[in-house]
Request: fold
Amino acid sequence: MTDTLAAYSLVAVYSAIAVYAIAFVTYVLDLAKRAALAQAVVAQPAAASIGRASQGATLTAEMPPTTSTGTPGASRYQRTAFALTILAWVIHVAAVVLRAVAAGRVPWANLFEFTMTGTAIIVGVFLLVQLWRDLKLLGAYVTGVVVLLGSLATANFYVDVTPLPPALQSAWLGIHVLVAMLATGFFAVGGGLSIVQLLQQRREAGKAAGIRFLKSFPTSEVLEVTANRVVIVGFALWTFTLMAGAIWAERAWGRYWGWDTKEVWTFIIWVVFAGYVHARATRGWRGSRSAWLAIIGFAAVIFNFTVVNLFFSGLHAYTGLK
Amino acid sequence: MASKPRSSEPRSSDPLRPDDHVDAEVTGTDVTGTDVTQPRLGPAGYIRFFWRQLTSMRTALLLLLLLALAAVPGSLVPQTTSDPNGVIQFQQRDPETYRVLDALGLFSTFSTPWFSAIYLLLFVSLVGCIVPRTKHHWDAMRARPPKTPARLERLVGFVSEPTNVEAGVAIDAAAALLKRQGYRIERYGDSVSAERGYLRETGNLVFHTALVGMLITVGIGGGFGYTGQRVIVQGEPFTNVLSAYDSIVKGRFFTESALEPYSLRLDDFEGHYELDASTGQWHPTDFDASVSTREPGGDWTAGSIKVNSPLTVGGTDVYLLGNGYAPVITVRDPDGVAVFSGAVPFLPLDGNLRSRGVVKVPDGLDQQVALQGFFYPDPVQMSDGTYTSFSPTDHGESLVTLFVYAGDLGLDAGVGVNAYVLDIDGMTQLAGGDSGVAALQLAEGQTVDLPDGLGTIEYEGLRRFVSLDIHHDPTPGWALLFAALILGGLLVSLFVPRRRVWVKAVGGRLEYAGLARGEDPTLEAAVADIARRHRAVLGEADRRMEP
Reply:
C-alpha cells in the first residue's frame, strides 16, 4: 500500500516537472514576444524619443492593455503559461499529499521530500501573491527554479518512504520546517523581483538596452517596493523559523542555541535580511544595493538547503542519504 | 542617531531617525557627518563625531553584514562547542592548517575577540540609537498631531469634492470617523489633522530592546549553567555531583553548589526498529529509557526519557543522546579469582549496533592485560570469517569477539586516560589480528581461556546503557520571553503603517490627503476609503435634513 502510493506520488512528481517545463517554455515565448513588440515600438520614430516617464503610455498602443499597477495585461502566451503553472501545481500538490499518506506523516522528513514540498510551496506562494499583485512576469523564473530543483532532487536524492527517526518525532517538525519552507517561498519571489529590478534599473540607466522585454515590465521603483513587501513577509516567517527551531532544539538537544552548522546558516540568513531591511531605510542603500542583499539572502537560503545539507556535518543530518 | 531632535521642528511627532535614514529630514549639514566646512574638532568634537558615525544607519548596516560574514567560518570549520571530536580529527588530519586556524580562533569562532567585537559594537550602536528614540517616541506619543498643511494638493491620495454641508459639521463628522479608525485627532480651524500607527515605532523599539535583552540573557544568564555528559549502565545509579560526570562544560559563573545531588538509575531501555524491506536496513522508530530518580530525602520515582522528551529533575533537564549494549565481563586469574568484573559499555559503530569496547585489567594477572573487542547483538558470520550484526536487537545469541594485548597500559603515568580508547604502544598482541592466535569469541554465558595461561574470561550477561546529556540552564524562560517580544515587535514594526491624514473644508469643497511616515504602500487606498466613508456619512446627514 505504502509502496504503491509512493510510486504514484513519484509519477505525479515527474508529471508536474514536465508540465512546469512546458509552462517555463511558454513563459519564455511570452518574454520573446514582448521583446519583439518592444522593438517594434522603438522602431517607430515618434516613439524613439519617448523617455522613461511616458513609457507606459507609449506602450499601450502596442502592448496588451496596461493595468492600474503599470503591469501590462496578460498576453495569450502568458495566460497559457499561467494556466499550465496552475495545472502543474495541482499535480505537484497531489504528489505531496500522496507521499504524506504513503508515509503516514508530514512529507518533509528527508531532502527529497523537503525539496518536493518546498518547491510546491514556492509555487504556492507565487500563485498566492497573484491575488495581490500581477507578478506573472516572474513565471519563467519561478518555473525555471522549480524545474531545476525538482529534477535535481528527484534524480539524486530520491529515497523510499522510511519511518520517522526518533529525533524527528515532534510536533515542531510540522511547524518549524513548514514555516521555513513558507519563508523560502517568499524569499524566492522577492529574490526574483529584485533580480528583475536590477535589470530594469540597468535598462533605465541605458546600460542594458539588449533585454527588450523589460520595457513591458513595471518600473524598477515599483518592482523594488513590491519586492520589499514580499521579502519582509519572508523575514518575519524566517524569524519565526529560527525561534521555533530554537524551542525544538531546547527540547531535543538540550540547548536552544549551539551554533550547529544549520543554526549558523539560519543566523547568517536572518542577519542578511535584517541588513536588507536596514538597507531599505538607509540613504544611498535603498534601490540596487538593497536589491543585491535580497538576492544574496535568497542565495544563502538555497546554499543552506543544498550545500549545507549535503556537505556540512552537523546535527541537522536528515537528508536520508547515505 | 546621536542627533538631537531637530530644532526646526522640536515638537515633531515623527519617529527620531539617524541622519542617514531615508525618512530623516536633510538638515543642511552633510548627512555623513563629514562636513568639510566645519572648524577643527576638539576632543569632545571627535567623540561626538565618532558617536554619530557609530550610531548611523550606515554603520549599523555595515556591522550587520560583517556579522553575517564573520559567522561563515563557524560553519566551515568544526567548532569546539558543537563538534569537539571534529576539532580533534581536524588536528590529527592536518596539524599545519590546524595551527593557523587555531591561532585565528576559528575553532571557537563565536567567542573570538573579532566576532565579539562586531556584535558588541553592533549592540552599542543599537543602544545609542534606541535610547534617544525611545525618549523622543515617549514625548511624541503625548504630542498633538501636527498642524494641517496650508496646501494639501501635493500630498498622497489628494481628493477634492464639492459639498453643501456646513464646514464645522463636516469636519466634526470627519474627526469622529477618523477617531473610530484609530487615529489620534486634532482640530485646527476648519480642518482635522489625524495620525495613526504610533505602534509601528513602539514595535520597532520593543524589537531592538528585546534583542539587547536576548544578548544579556544568553551572555550573562548562560554563565550560570552547566552541561554534563554521562554514560549510565542499567542498574548502576548516577548521582549528580561534579566527579560523577564523564565530561562537563561549566558556565563562567558556575559554582559546585549549582549541582543538586539527586540520583538517577537506568531500569530498562527499549529500542524499537522497523525493517525497510527494500534495503534491508533497520530504521529506529522509538528509543525509550525507563529510569528512576531520587531527590535528596525522597523516594525513587519512575520516569521515562525519549529523544524529543527530556526528563526534568533537580533543576536539570536530562536528554537521551545515545544507547548501546554493555556486556558483563569477568576476568579471572589461573586460580579462579576474579580480577575484573563489570558491565562494559561498547560504543555503537553502525545502525545495527555492531559496537566496539575496551576492557583494561591493570592488576591481578601476571602482566597488565587489555581486551579490545567487538560486540554483535545479532551476529551473522560473513564469507571471510568475520562477523557483522544482522539487526540491532539482541535475541539471546549475542557475540563478543576480543583481541588480547599484554604489556604496559600506560595508566601509571598519572595522566587521565580515555576508558574507551586503548593505546597499544608498548603492548604485545596475544590473540587476534597478526598474532597467530585466533581472536577470542564468547557467546553469552560462555567462558574461555586467555592466551599464555593468563587466566579465563567470562561473558556473563548483557545489559543496556544510555549516554545522557544533563543540562542546567536558567535562561530558557527569559529567552522565550525576549523571543516573543522580538517577534511581536518585528511584526508590528513591519506591518503597521504610520500615516497622517487630513480632512479640510475650503470654500464649499472638502479636501482629503495623506502622508506616509515610512513604508506605506496602501496609503492612497486608505485616503480614498476615508473620503468615501466621510461622503457617505455626510450624504446621510444631507438626506436627514432635506425632508
Summary: Residues 45-71 of chain A have pLDDT under 50 and may be disordered. Chain A touches chain B through 56 residues (CB under 8 Å). DSSP finds ten helices and no strands in chain A.
